[in-house]
Amino acid sequence: MAIHLDHLMVPAHDKRASAKLLAGLLGVPWSETGVGPFVPVYLNDGLTLDFDEWSGFFPRLHFCFRVTEDDFDAILARIHAMGIAYRSHVHGPVDRQIDTEHGGRIVYWNEPDGHQWELLTVSYARQSDDVYLGM
Predict the structure, then answer these.
(1) Could you tell me if 33 and 94 lie in one domain?
(2) Contact, 118 vs 65, CB < 8 A?
């Protein structure tokens, strides 16, 4: 049986600004309008992040993106260019360093609504998949 994650909803105070920022950093397409009230960011052929506008409090979420070494370099360059603070550890202070403890490279940053984004080149949760996926 094959199960594929199709989309996730991401709460935001300004869904368009949040979607545009993430899509710009990751270098992926997005649309001003999606199905229903959502502003979609198209991560790949099968997964969409649907930004939804919420007022008031909402939970801060953590999302991790596994990318190639070349994509990591390109995304980190965009993070630098935009002056976004990043860190090497999930709960650590902003140190503008890259974590290499798990056989790849990892950085974390928070977007304006507080969601935490993680970028890595080797999955520490599923290391054997990296060989299978050719990453």
Answers:
(1) no
(2) yes
Query: Residue 13: which domain range?
Result: 1-56
Sequence-ordered list of residues with C-beta below 8 angstroms from that of 10, at least 6 positions apart, any chain = 18, 49, 50, 51, 52, 61, 63, 115
Q: What is the CA radius of gyration of the chain?
A: 15
Tens of pLDDT, residue by residue over 111-134, are 999 999 999 999 887 666 544 455
- State which amino acid sits at residue 57: F
- 8-state DSSP, 27: T
What tens digit of pLDDT does each residue of 5-45 get?
A: 999 999 999 999 999 999 999 999 999 988 889 999 999 99
Nearest residue to 23 via CA among 89, 15, 86: 15
Structure tokens at 31: 């649309």
CATH of the domain at 12: 3.30.720.120
CA separation for the pair 40, 42 (Å, rounded): 6
- Same domain assignment for residues 90 and 122: yes
